[in-house]
Amino acid sequence: MNTLSFIPQDLVYFFIVVALSFLVGLELKAYRLHKEPKPHLGSARTYTFIGIIGFVFYKISLNLYITGFITLSVLYAIHYYFKNEEQRTSILSFLIMAIVYSFGALINIYQNIWMPALLFVLIVFILNYKSYLGRALNEINEKEFETLGKFVLLSAVILPILPNTPIKTIGISPFKIWLVVVVISAISYGSYLAQKFIFKNKGYLLTGIFGGLYSSTATTVVLSKKALSINASGNILSIINSAIIIATSMMYLRLLVIAFIFNSEVARKILIPMVLFALIGVIISFFLYKKNVAADAPIDDRNPLELGTAFVFAFLFVAMMVITHYVTSHFGNVGLKILSFIIGFTDIDPFVLSLLTGKFHITLNDIASAIVIAAGSNDILKAIYSLVFSKKIAKTSAFWLFVLGVLTIIYGLLF
Prior knowledge:
By secondary structure, the protein is mainly α. It is built from 15 helices and no strands. Helices cover 80% and strands 0% of the residues.
C-alpha cells in the first residue's frame, strides 16, 4: 500500500481498522432497527472499540490478542445465557464481533487492506440481503442442492483425480475427456439457473434464449408441444415461433463459445458463419415476435446434471472420436462431411467436441466445415420436430429452421 513517507504505516492501518469497525457497527445498528428491535450486545461505538482492541493487542503480542478474544467470547457467553432465556438464539452479534476483532490482525498480516475491506463488504451485503435470501430459499427445494452437489462432484471431485496421460488408442487423456463433460455441464447448469431463478416466468423469448444455451433441440420440442397444448394462434403462435428460432440462434453462439474454449484456431474459422447465422436467426425472431401477449412460458425444469447423462455424454464423446478417426482415415474429407451431416440428426455436442479436441489427419478447414454442416443438419432436425410435435401448428418456425439449415450446410460445404 502506497502512503506518504511522513505518515507511519501502522497509523494508516490503525485508522482504516477504526473506520471499518465503526461502519460495521453502524450497519449492524441500522439492521437491528429495521429487523430486530430488541436489545443487543454492543453499538457502533462498541464495535469500534473491539476493532481498536484487536489491532492494539495484536501489535503487543499474540498471546494478549488470543486472551482478548477469549475474554470477549466469555462476555458474550454470559450475555447469550440470559438472551437464550428469552428464546433469542441468534449468535449474529458474536460472529460479527469476531470478524471485527480480526481486522487488526489481518491488516498487519497481509500488509494491505483488501481482506478487512472484503469482509466489511460481505457483512454489509449479507445483512442487507437477508430478505432476498429468504425469498430465494422458499423457491429452492432439496433437489436444487442435490443438483449443486452433483456439479461439485463432476468438477471438483472427479475431475482432479483423473490422470492427464493420453490414452494411446484415442490420443486424449481421461482428464480432458471429463473436462469436456464439466464444461458442457457448466453451460447447461448456468442457463438452467438463469432460466429458473433469475428470469423465471419472463416469457417465451427468454425461454428460447436460455433453453437454446442448454439444448436448442430440447427447447424446440418443449415449445412445439406448448403450441399444440394451447392450440396457439395469432400473436401467441408468433411468439412461440420466435422463441423456437432464437433458441437455434443460441445454438450457434454456444458452439462458437465451446470452440473458443477448446480450440481457438477452429473457433476463428467458424466465427463468421456462426455469428452470421445466429444474427439471421435473431432478425427472423425479431420480425416474428409480437409484444404485449400474456401467456405462461414453459420452463424445462428437469435436472441438467444427471450423473447417468454425464457418463453417457463422456461415452458418446469417446465414441465420436473413434468413429471420426476411422472415417477420416478411410474416407477423408468427403467421408467427414457426410458423417457430420448424419450426426446433425442426433446430439451434435459430442461430435463437435471430438473434432475440437481430437488429433485427426485433417485440416482446420475440414474441422470447421464439419462443425458448420452438423449445425445445419441439426437445424433441419429441429424443423422436423417443430412440425411433428406441434402437428404443423408451428410451421412458420419449421420453415425458417429448414432455410437456416440449408444455408448453413451450403456454407459448410464451401470451406
